[in-house]
Amino acid sequence: MELFLGIDVGTQSVKCIVIDCDSGRIAAESSVNFGRDLPQYASPNGFLQNENPLIRQADSLMWLDALELAFRHLAGSGIPLSAVRGISGSGQQHGTVYLSGKISSLNSKSSPAEQIRPKLARSRSPIWMDRSTAGECRELDARFGERLRRDTGSPAVERFSGPQIRKFAKEDPDAYRRTERIHLVSSFLCSVLCGSDAPIDFGDGAGMNLLNLNTLRWDGEIAEFTAPGLEKKLPPVLPSCSIAGALDPYFAKYGFEAGIPVVVWSGDNPNSLVGVGAAESGCVGISLGTSDTLFAPMRRFKTDPDGCGHVFGNPAGGFMSLICFSNGSLAREKVRESLNVSWEFFDHDACARTPAGNGGRLILPYFEPESTPLVLSPRVCRNYREASAAEEVRALLESQALSLRLHSEWLGEKFHRIRLTGGASGSEGFRQILADVFQAEVETISVTNSAGLGAAIRAANTVAGIPLERLYALFCRPEKKISPNPENRILYDDLLERFRSFEKSALIS
Ligand code: XUL
Predict the structure, then answer these.
(1) Whose CA is nearest to atom 6 of ligand 1?
(2) Total domains present in the chain
């Protein structure tokens, strides 16, 4: 048995997936939900309550306790974890962890969370949902203008790590001075696994407004303006196929062999690009998770003139595009709750019993602040007064699909094939809407945890040298294929134009 472990530390849960590269099977999976399984952290949606909807922070120790619980479940599943030959992982992007000392080997007397607690220079980590840094973004844009987008792949973005670090350094300069290391969620978890300070990879590092994509090094000038002495507080940045260290002996208690290689972790979107098998194949990935994201490998490095799309490192080499829609499953869940319907209703009533185009009904579902397009004050706009529950659901799903198409136009590519992943990819009705709106073949793979799978694939590729093509053939074979209905082409081309003007007018008003 040749086993590799991928760990995904997401917004709402930690998930583990073990792949067996001999048989091509998923050997085991485990999952820990922050709200359900760790109620002591009072974070039902993965972040701490805050009256200000722009502030979204999490307790970084929650991720460590969840990791341990996920390992315990994995060990309990009966697979021989001693056969795991390598590990890698995936973190929700942009979130930052502030430490007053470097991470060192763990002792077996107390939990990793208890051992890390005294090392935290800041008890709360801002996560990707935080939008409280508009002022810092303005300052960065005023200082660097176009250079920020040209060199880091994005203009100053509220949720990105650089503006978050700048805000912290301004608001709490003493704690910032005490901070010796600033990690991303991904490099923090990787460091704890290794019992030593781990690097950041190009995939996740590019989501910080600090990495110069031309040199693939921290941009000293931008880092110094962001916060004094910042470059020295950042870990080194390396390609995703680097070994970060060896598994700390602490984790042998779960059955792992101490010292097995831990491959540098990456962000959830770069990992998902690998996990859906799209890192080299010329198709686009759409992940329907808490946020909806659209990502694709980039032939040529280009940036979004509207500033909503980003360029990250592609773990398979080169670059990738990423567009993030914060109100993904978050909005679907809100609409489902407000109508008091089931998920089955989405497919069986809403999608099956209402016509494509839905009488032109459109929704801008900014229940939470939105990244694409940038909306800081949450609000929901409808271009209609009346709708049945089924029509309301279709209006949401069609609008979400149209927004994905509209805001990926800057990539200048017609997508012929979409690999769909994430929880909502299970919806037959939504799959058909996406196929029709994009007029593209939509494919799903059997594993929905594509970020964890991508991490496991990267571990197998880096540690055992198994070619990515072989790993894609083993684990990312399309399971379902949905063809677009050509009769809906013109209808959705027209609806896209309506959506464009509706969004434009709603953003002005
Ligand atoms: C991407 C983004 C989210 C997070 C959480 O820029 O903010 O997709 O990575 O999944």
Answers:
(1) 324
(2) 2
Domain identity same for 157 and 279:
no
Cis bond upstream, residue 373 (ω within 30): yes
**How confident is the model over 76-123, as pLDDT tens digits?**
999 999 999 999 999 999 999 999 998 999 999 999 999 999 999 999
Spatial CB neighbours of 21, under 8 Å, sequence gap ≥ 6 = 2, 3, 4, 460, 464, 466, 471, 474
Residue 164: what are its φ and ψ, rounded to 5°? -65, -40
Return the structure tokens found at 95.
């979130």
Helix (H, G, I), strand (E, B) or coil at 100: coil
Q: 27 and 145, same structural domain?
A: yes
Check pLDDT > 80 for residue 280. Answer: no
Q: Same domain for 343 and 244?
A: no
149 and 297 part of one domain: no
Structure tokens at 384: 């209609």
Q: How far is CA 382 from CA 144, 202, 339, 354, 387, in A?
A: 37, 40, 15, 18, 10
When pLDDT is averaged across residues 252-280 and rounded to a whole number, the result is: 96
Q: In terms of domains, do 110 and 255 share one?
A: yes
Q: What is the CATH number of the domain that holds 331?
A: 3.30.420.40
Supply the angle between the helices 468-475 and 450-464 in degrees, to the nearest 10.
140
Q: In this predicted structure, what is the pLDDT of residue 279?
A: 84
Can you give the residue range of the structural domain that contains 394?
272-509
Check whether residue 215 and residue 299 sit in a common domain: no
**Mutate which of 293, 310, 330 for ligand 1 pocket (most atoms within 8 A of beta carbon):** 293
How much distance in Å is there from the Cα of 92 to the middle of ligand 1?
A: 6
Under a CB-based contact definition with an 8 Å cutoff, are residues 433 and 298 in contact? Answer: no
For the chain, give the mean pLDDT.
Answer: 96
Tell me: the pLDDT tens digits for 290-333? Answer: 899 999 999 788 999 999 999 999 999 999 999 999 999 999 99
> Please, what is the angle between helix 428-438 and helix 489-508, to 10°?
90
Binding site membership of 324 for ligand 1 (Cβ less than 6 Å): yes
Burial classification of residue 466, based on how many CB atoms lie within 10 Å of its CB (0-12 exposed, 13-18 middle, 19 or more buried) = middle
Residue that terminates a domain, selected from 205, 240, 264: 264
Task: Please name the residue ranges forming H helices in 340-417.
Answer: 343-345, 352-353, 389-406
